[in-house]
């Protein structure tokens, strides 16, 4: 959280607004919590949603209800409060009424060139994933795009695409300078893929396409990658099935997406909605400073 430039990027420069609360006792700062807004439409209607991030409480004031006060204030400002439950303290805040489990995160892995140099479990995982990829799924074509070309692609192909300002903020730094943008083409349909690389692994950060074409786009992304393996973190039963159909090895991760809201009709609508989401980057990934692509 203390990395230079991170606070300004995450909160002050956020095109959806800056939302940071502080907790003070007798004028002394003892806690801080950020609310990170995210764009969401439910049944075609925009919903005000935010994640709680960077909750920090001085050790001597923990377990005194400060975290719950921050959560209640988030519900005053937004229709829904979301959490991926990375910490036990945050998970406890979301237990109780008006809470909905949207799904457990799943890790998808597609192996093009198995790495057989690790331990027995790692070798078995690589071998199984490689075998699945050989017998399932379909391919396509991939074309690398610049940031401006990606924005133009969204304007032409995705009616509900994020605004240019939000897309630039989310995917073009200054913290994230190593994202790459690709057009995918499979069975005559197109999608926009956002990735980053970790050594021999390509990580899928975001995928923009018509939902009915997403399965083909996942297969295209996997089979057109130049990396040894491609992975992603996501939630949603439909997305999990699509990954398995395309030859990904899918395993549960130690986190779930949960939502809390005061509007009962909104919570019911959310419960009926087939929820799917990419996890994008984790908190630890937010701390990295990528290097711009040199080619």
Could you please describe the fold and organization of this structure?
The protein has 9 helices and 14 strands. The protein is globular. The longest helix has 16 residues, at 120-135. Strands 1, 2, 5, 6, 7, 8, 9, 10, 11, 12, 13 and 14 form a 12-stranded mixed β-sheet that branches. The model is unreliable at 282-295 (pLDDT under 50). With 295 residues, the protein is α+β, with helices and mostly antiparallel strands. 30% of the residues are buried. Helix content is 30%, strand content 33%.
Could you estimate the helical fraction of the residues in percent? 25-40%
Q: Total number of helical segments?
A: 9
Strand content is 25-35%
Shape: globular
Tally of extended strands?
14
Mean pLDDT: 84
Order of helices and strands: HEEEEEHEHEHEHHEEEHEHEHE
Oligomeric form: single chain
Question: Termini separation (Å)?
Answer: 31 Å
Largest sheet: 12 strands, mixed
Concise overview:
With 295 residues, the protein is an alpha+beta fold.
Question: Topology of this protein?
Answer:
Layout: H1 6-12, E1 20-25, E2 28-38, E3 41-42, E4 45-46, E5 49-57, H2 66-77, E6 80-83, H3 88-93, E7 99-111, H4 120-135, E8 141-145, H5 147-157, H6 164-171, E9 180-186, E10 189-198, E11 201-208, H7 214-223, E12 229-235, H8 237-245, E13 249-260, H9 264-272, E14 277-278
Parallel strand pairs: 5-6, 11-12
Antiparallel strand pairs: 1-2, 2-5, 3-4, 6-13, 7-12, 7-13, 8-9, 9-10, 10-11, 12-14
Helix pairs in contact: 7-8
